[in-house]
Amino acid sequence: MQSRILVVDDEKEIREFLSKALTRIAGFHVEVAEDGDDALKKIEQDKLDLILTDLKMPRMDGLKLITEIAKTKPEILTVLMTGHGTIDSALEAMKRGASDYLTKPINLDELVLRVQKVLDEKQRFVSLKEYISQLESANQKLKRVDEMKSEFVSVASHELRTPLATIKNAVQLVLKGKAGEVNDTQANFLIMAEKNINRLTNILNDLLDLSKIEAGKMGMKLEELDLRVSIDFVLSSLKSQADGKSIHLKMEVPKDLPFAYGDREKVEQMLINLIGNAIKFTPEGGKVFVSARLLDKTKNAVGISVQDTGIGIREDQLGKVFEKFHQVGRPLHHSASGTGLGLAITKGLVEAHQGQIWVESELGKGSTFTFTLPLSKGETGEPQLRFILDLEFRRAQENHTPFTLFLIEVLRQMGKPENNQLNQLEETVKKCFVRKGDILFKRGRDNIWAALCEADLRGAQVIRRRIEGEIQKYFMEGGDPSLVIKVGAATYPEEAITKRELFRRAKTQLRG
Amino acid sequence: MGKKKILVVDDEVDLVKTIQVYLELGGYKVLTSYNGDDALNQARKENPDLILLDIMLPKLDGYKVCRLLKFDEKYKHIPILMMTAKTQEKDKLIGKETGANEYITKPFDMEELTEMIKAYLKD
To answer: A173–B90: do the CB atoms touch at under 8 Å?
Structure first.
């Protein structure tokens, strides 16, 4: 397409000379104007790509014209022509939005070259911008489709539950002889049906879990975790399964291992998935060894490993084991086959805790799965809050949702609050944060509860009133009057946009 | 003493039927209902010893039925077990606020359900 250029100069000869040159040499369409006002008028009337303007002109000079164009028509390019020794004006023009400048006397070849270059750059910029906006809209569309998919999985899983319940009840009725006598063959088939109903239920649960993880809609109830207790609990619940295959379960967790920080149910789900898998893929008489240790101290993390003497994973399959619906080989007992979602879910759960998961394996010898969890207390004293705030910031930025940090501190006029008082108050505090997505946790030694809510400023006010109401109720129902309960809050992004700022703002209110 | 009366409410007719058969074999008298409005009327008229209540119901949802009964001096003693196809925490919490006594997620084990019912109807 032919580019349209406006030449602005108060000297008629120069205007015409430049106009001719640009038309004949470069084939541009050229308009002329004799001063700034004239130029602005032409810009309004005509669709122009580039303005080539002289610096010194009566009334409005080149600089003013460039400034005006940059303000009102930023899509139009400007190039300034200056006399010798006025390089300062040239630089000033560039600052105000000019694309380039030329010094007089004008060399025609240079003029055409520079103008062409400026126009080309603009063209590249425009196509890049178009490309970006195309990518952006494609990305938006994909996001919507992905959300719809998650929504669909969630609705479908719920809808499937009711008919599944009917089938299960009907099968159980017949199986338990409540609809007449059942012979052994019939019973065996019904048991087969029942087993597969349970399997279907597990698949539904897995799908639902995964869709929640992918949509980032997983509520997290974070607390300090004694991994010895969690591992022990999971091992004892899988013991009968291991005993059935004479698999020896062993655990090794140092007694002084610091508490991890996470959602108990979800951490136990990770352990069940990994240890269950280990049992599934280990031949009779094998071993499954679960251990936990402190990782590099500066990283504030603990590593949990599940090692088995199973069939192992081929090297080319190692990278794929965490993919959805991927099953490496067949389990040793076909009846035990899973959904192919267990490891994908585990990975999602680990990542929701800002941890990592990886696998090492040797074919025929066994595999070791290791994942990390954040520690409850690090050197700085508040890693758990940092960790949660990290999560929330990331989520808020991705979803453009506000959130509010609440701090609730309990003090006593004389001495410290007693444990039973704190426990009682914990019940009160819990009542304030019952909405989906609310995260409440107690911070170590200071008697401070911190809570994060998906709430903007107005929502925060409502929650604050609820907290104050509950505190009042606590005192009215015979709470210790020597206790002092303070509430601080800060909302992202209205009141604070960094972690430190958010925390500081909420904390300042505790002092008041 | 006569048979204990249980009201089973779900819009899935087949599901209600299987539960009914199971409970009747367990020695209970079973009333059935397929929507919230009717469930509320039956509960008020028949004064059952226990109600098994689905959440997603036509006309009046299970939460509302539960709340209307639990906040009524005359009926708040009736134990209500909620049956739900949803697994989210939020639903459970709303259930607590509505005053439901127990929650059971579909598909459930009938043995488990009868144990639960037995526990509520002991005295």
So the answer is: no
Number of Cβ within a 10 Å radius of residue A317: 16
Positive or negative torsion for Cα A52, A55, A60, A64: positive
Tell me the β-bridge partners of A489: A406
Cα A420 off chain centre by: 38
Q: Between chain A and chain B, how many beta carbons pairs sit less than 8 Å apart?
A: 63
User: CB B106 to CB A205 under 8 A?
Assistant: no
Spell A1-12 as b/e; 16+ CB within 10 A means b: eebebbbbbbee
CA A385 from chain centre, in angstroms, equals: 17
Q: For residue A85, what pLDDT is reported?
A: 65
Of B15, B85, B111, the CB nearest to A158: B85
User: Looking at the predicted structure, is the pLDDT value of residue B46 above 60?
Assistant: yes
Residue A199: its chain B contacts at CB < 8 A? none
Q: Which tens digit of pLDDT belongs to each residue from A188-198?
A: 999 989 988 98
> Shortest CB distance from A165 goes to which of B22, B90, B106?
B106
Between strands A50-54 and A4-8, the pairing is: parallel
**Distance between CA atoms of residues A199 and A192, nearest Å:** 11
Which residue in the block uniquely carries the two structure tokens 């799908």?
Answer: A207
- Smallest Cβ–Cβ distance between A170 and the set B18, B25, B108 belongs to B18
- For residue B6, give how far its alpha carbon lies from the nearest alpha carbon of chain A (Å): 17
Paired tokens of A289? 């060894």
Q: How far is CA A4 from the centre of its chain?
A: 47
Residues 6+ apart with CB under 8 A from A460: A404, A406, A453, A489, A491
Query: Per DSSP, which regions of A109-254 are E strands?
Result: 222-225, 248-252
CA distance B96 to B74: 20
- A85 Cβ under 8 Å from any chain B Cβ: no
Neighbours of B4 (CB within 10 A): 18
**Alpha carbons B53 and B33: distance in angstroms, whole number:** 9
Using DSSP's 3-state secondary structure scheme, residue B43 falls into helix
Substitution target in B110, B113, B114, B115 with the highest count of A β-carbons within 10 Å is B110
Of A164, A169, A208, the CB nearest to B19: A169
Distance CA A407, CA A503 (A): 9
A398 pLDDT higher than 70? no
Tokens of residue A396, six digits: 């808020």
Q: State what percent of residues in chain B have pLDDT above 90.
A: 49
